[in-house]
Amino acid sequence: MNKTHSLVTVLKKFLIHQKGIEFYKTVKTFAAGETIFSPEKPTERIYFLLEGAVKLSRIDRAGKEIPLILLPPNNLFGVLSSISDSVEGSYSAVAWSPVSLFFLTNAQFQQVLKEFPELPSLIVMELSQRLLRSQKMIDALAQRDLFTRLTLFLLLLCDDFGIETEAGILIKLKLTHQNIANLIRANRPSITRLLRLLRSKQIISIYKRTITVHDPQVLSRYHKESLLKEKSLWEKVS
């Protein structure tokens, strides 16, 4: 049974059939850049992302934001505080693009867990996959070389937001150079220069802020070559 469809099916069933709640009344929209929850605005709801992308970040003790993941559609978030004693106080969720989502209150979600015994295992699967994606994001940010970070980031976007087209993998997100720079800890001029380089080699094309990766395997090869060069350089330095 498909994990994504199972989650949305169970939650919709609870909203519509178990409680008589009209589904559309629980759908909420956020504009790009709008905060969904943060340490100053803690969540009391469980969200299921329908459209768009949400940036989940951890806020360290110094108040510094550490991006963890760009969450694609058909994913839950705000869930950990409802299934454990932990709280979302050190985390934030911001709409990275215009998003629509539906939600349950914590009390409703606790009731769902009681009424649908299959749900906890589905949530564990979801959180496991998210942990893997978060680790990949952290790995991308850990690369010293900016080209290595950028190519890995684009590959991650292909996995989570890519749509196959005749021209290649279309990343279904509108991305500004500043957006990318902010996420991978770079400056905009450097991102512009590297994207121009990838375009000149016909690895990517950009139309109306939407990136198409013409051949992910070629991009992956460039990433691996860059990673090896970086490793060799630092081995010589050390």
Structure notes:
This protein has 238 residues and is of the alpha+beta class. The chain folds into two domains: 3-135, Jelly Rolls; 143-237, Winged helix-like DNA-binding domain superfamily/Winged helix DNA-binding domain (Arc Repressor Mutant, subunit A). Helix content is 47%, strand content 24%. The chain has helices at residues 3-18, 80-83, 106-115, 119-142, 146-161, 177-183, 188-200, 216-237; strands spanning 27-30, 35-37, 45-51, 54-59, 65-71, 75-77, 91-95, 99-105, 162-165, 168-171, 204-207, 210-213. A hairpin with a 2-residue loop joins strand 11 and strand 12 (210-213). The longest helix is centred in the middle third of the chain and has 24 residues, at 119-142. It starts with a helix and ends with a helix.
Give me a quick take on this structure.
By secondary structure, the protein is of the alpha+beta class. The protein has helices at about 5-20, 80-85, 105-115, 120-140, 145-160, 175-185, 190-200, 215-235, and strands spanning about 25-30, 35, 45-50, 55-60, 65-70, 75, 90-95, 100-105, 160-165, 170, 205, 210-215.
Tell me the β content: 15-25%
What is the fold-level CATH name, i.e. the topology of the largest domain? Jelly Rolls
Q: State the end-to-end distance.
A: 50 Å
| Gyration radius, rounded | 19 Å
For the record, what CATH class of the largest domain applies? Mainly Beta
